[in-house]
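Appendix B.2, paired examples.
Example (i):
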Amino acid sequence: MAIVSHRRLEKRLHTLIENRTVFTLEKSELNLFETYQACTSVELKFHEPIVATMIQGKKVMHLAQNHPFDFFPNQSLVLPANEPMRIDFPEASFNTPTRCLALAISPDLISAVAADLNERFPKTDNNTWQLHYNQFYLGSDPRITQTISQLVQIFIDDEPAKDILAALKLRELLVRMMQTQARTLLLEQTKLYLNRSRLAVAVDYIKTHLHEHISIDDLCKKSCMSKPHFFRSFKQELGATPIEFINRVRIERAKELLAQPGISVSEVCFRSGFSSTAYFDRVFKQAVGLCPKQYQQMMKSVAHQRA
């Protein structure tokens, strides 16, 4: 999904490195950056928490206490205020600039949204809604990408009520990010949360039985919840239905298998827990944007380039 169209905004090109266009509203500020030449070690810092999203090209991000990592289009991350960044632009050129955005959000708004969620939609097992800056990588979640795209359009459009519209979308974006972080935490640190979250018990069962048929009734029993309570809690806290969540985990497993040499797509399908190759093809393409065979060929090409 294109976050910003490639039409030029009305602005002057002041610099070839991190040329910046700014749109400011009451509780947020949108920064659009374009870099027109390859460079390294560009330093950047914001005085408020930000959500950063790649639009075009590639960056290499250097953050404190983290290994450098590649940052690609439609991927997003969230950083606290005053977090120093050092950025490389290995592929930027005048004809193919690297484009990204940084959305600065008022800390007061973040606190208000978390407090509202905790009051109106309390999590199970006394867990709380909050934005975790140590879980900074948000991946390429389509709902986050879509919400950011809609926010950008609100900032750019000449709309008298844009402050009100942006406030609503910012609240939605914050909820989406908290749900994404909750999914990541339960997937990556499942064992740590087993005694603290009944949803972690369900996630642990999903992970250990991924290649089998997973019954929703079994997940409810493992979590000690009625089916309505389980569905409501799962969707509310993790931003996905149990079936959507299972498919996402299976897709990630399929991507790992497709990167291995000498494995057929049908074998990947069944080892990932899908019972139908047609359904696997459809769900995989919907999530990744490529069919499994295309993804496998792309990974072969990447492996060949690295060799």
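Example (ii):
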Amino acid sequence: MPHIYTWDVDRWTQPSGVTGLNAGAGLGMGLAMGQGLDRGLQFGDGLFETMRLNAKGESPLMPLHQGRLKKGLAVLGFSPDAITTVERAMSKLSDITLAHLSTHTSSPITPTSAHNQPQAVDCRPDDGGVCSGVKIIVTRGNSTQGYGAIEGIRPNIYAVTFEAPELNPAPALINVGVNPVTLGEQPLLAGLKHLNRIEQVLARQKFQPEWSESIMLNQKSQIVEGCMSNIFVNIDNQWLTPPMDNAGVDGVVRQWLLSMVDKISVEVIPLKELASAQAICFSNSLSGFREVQALDGQSLLMNTDVTDWQMHYKSLFDEC
């Protein structure tokens, strides 16, 4: 069951009774508090990060999440004080992620007497543990009307903890297609995980029943990403992934993989080159890697590289 929290001065707080299906209503109440409405609700003026957690309630890729979030805050023009507030909230995430694990594991997490550090709990479901995640939403704050924000506006910061899907040692096999919704280009926002997700909402509506993902193109018929993932395409035994210069989200798993593997080339991939693709996979922080078994009904080969990547990614969460 998800739990929602808000950042209040120097600590995370949870509105009374706000869990599960009530979480949306509770968040709506929070959005309407203060002077005016939350600018994230009004304008999509903010950013978010979705993180998979290990058995200690920590994200092994936290530095990458923090780096992307901090970059996004700077690009959106958040004040230094606001950025400091967000960094403080991020540093205290363990206060709520450990509480979530304690609620959902058979063995409650308690501090040890020697070092006051939480005891490790195995997050593998077959051992009685739980796989979990946390979503952080940062908005510029509250305002009445108009795009301009007042000086000294205080950011609103929300967190939602949830049960994540089990992370399998082998990549899931999925069917995908090319989405008819194309992505607009905005270099200022490219790479960021901002709150303006209406293109993805429209794209998700176009999924065929058999699709688990879709390939998103720009208006030049070039591949950008998946609807909810980054994409890697193997052509002539060379792995390619599109640049994030004009559109798309620079995913943390994508960043991690590019730092680990030399044989992936970042380059433009025209749609027509998909006809020569030998293998395709998608990545995101919750699932790791998913491999395409069929593209618009056309079968593709499986590639052992993707299995290796998934095993390596899973090991990040097994090592506590």
